[in-house]
Amino acid sequence: MQGAGKGTQGTIMAKKYNLAIFDTGAQLRALIQTDSLLAEKVKLIMNAGKLVPNEVVMELIENFMEANKSGGILFDGLPRNKEQEESFNSLISKHSRNLKGIYIDLSHEEAVKRLLGRRMCEKCKSIYPIAYSNDNCEKCGGNLVTRPDDNLDSIKTRLDTFKKETLPVIENYEKAGILTRIDGQQSIEKVSEDIFQALGKCF
Ligand code: AMP
After folding, report:
1. Which atom of ligand 1 is nearest to the CA of 46?
2. Dist. CA 96 → ligand 1 center (Å)
3. What angle separates helix 82-94 from helix 167-175, to the nearest 10 degrees?
4. Could you give phi then psi for residue 69, rounded to 5 degrees?
5. Least trusted range by pLDDT, from 88-92, 194-198, 199-203
6. In a domain, 25, yes or no
7. 167 within a domain of the structure (yes/no)
8. What residue owns the CA closest to ligand 1's atom 12?
9. Residue 196, number of CB atoms within 10 A of its CB
């Protein structure tokens, strides 16, 4: 769920298990920095808090999987709707990979509070949670600013879309026994511990 700390936890897990990270939001934010019609279109969609068209997302994933044929991959932020679920499952089969899902759950109120309070580095686009009090990025020294899509209207659209389109995907994976639900209301350390426990059996 948005604001639950999936980026933070993804970085921790990738380091521990030596995984390549495919962060969908970050890949799309890199795409909109390019000078193209597609970039302009995707930027408008993202700032409004809507889902980027599936074919754009699936092409990025396919390219990433082709470039990372060996070693594990951590996919952050997908699949987010039924169509992506089907395409993603096909890609997983095509590449003969095993899939294990983690969903970090959070209340609606807490998600809004965290999304409104977090900031992004202007230069390298790293995301900093509400608890980070410094005004500069610890990686590159860039200024921290509010992400263009972290405004109330966009947050509302994203959380509504999550409920309508993404939750059913989570429930499907849960029914298939390949997804573990984690309480995102806990400390970063405790969330990591719970994820390690869930993933421990896979590595
Ligand atoms: P995130 O960084 O995960 O909060 O994602 C930021 C934005 O990127 C979302 O609000 C969407 O506009 C877009 N996005 C991220 N993941 C996906 C996805 N799997 N499918 C479509 N759009 C996505």
Report:
1. 12
2. 26
3. 40
4. -75, -25
5. 199-203
6. yes
7. yes
8. 46
9. 14
Closest protein CA for atom 11 of ligand 1: 51
Tell whether the model's pLDDT for residue 27 goes beyond 80: yes
Q: Which domain holds residue 54?
A: 6-202
Q: Which of 12, 170, 16, 176 is nearest to 106 (CA)?
A: 170
CATH number at residue 135: 3.40.50.300
The count of domains in the chain is 1
In a domain, 1, yes or no: no
Closest C-alpha residue for ligand 1 atom 2? 25
Atom of ligand 1 nearest to the CA of 80: 19
pTM value > 0.70: yes
Place of tokens 């294990």: 100
Does position 35 have pLDDT exceeding 80, yes or no? yes
Q: What is the pLDDT of residue 30?
A: 94
pLDDT of residue 38: 96
Helices and strands (H and E) in the chain: how many: 9, 7
